[in-house]
Design goal:
97 residues, mainly beta, 5-stranded mixed barrel, disordered N terminus
């Protein structure tokens, strides 16, 4: 999880390029209604989730998200040096798009 603390990382795959992500102090019981990707047609609540429990701890905020974004719930591959981690994008950080 310490990899997610780095503010700037390289996205790999179909979303390649530089972006910002961050690890917030989420817990397994964090309710989705407190996150960017909560309700709305593209929110994770619509997928049947109410808390982070099924996805935790591989969750993070991503600067490419905004409320009801079609990218909510995207699986992102982050690479920093020779380390790679996959996470579910479910919150917004930074300026957003």
């Amino acid at each position: 999880m310490k990899l997610l603390a780095f503010m700037s990382m390289m996205l790999v795959g179909c979303l390649s390029g530089k972006a910002y992500c961050t690890y917030h102090l989420y817990t397994v019981d964090t309710q989705l209604n407190t996150l960017t990707c909560s309700d709305g047609a593209n929110g994770l609540i619509e997928w049947g989730y109410s808390a982070l429990q099924p996805m935790f701890p591989y969750v993070a905020a991503w600067d490419q998200l905004k409320w009801n974004d079609a990218k909510c719930g995207s699986c992102i591959e982050l690479t920093f040096g020779d380390k790679t981690v996959h996470f579910t994008a479910l919150d917004q950080c930074g300026a957003g798009v």
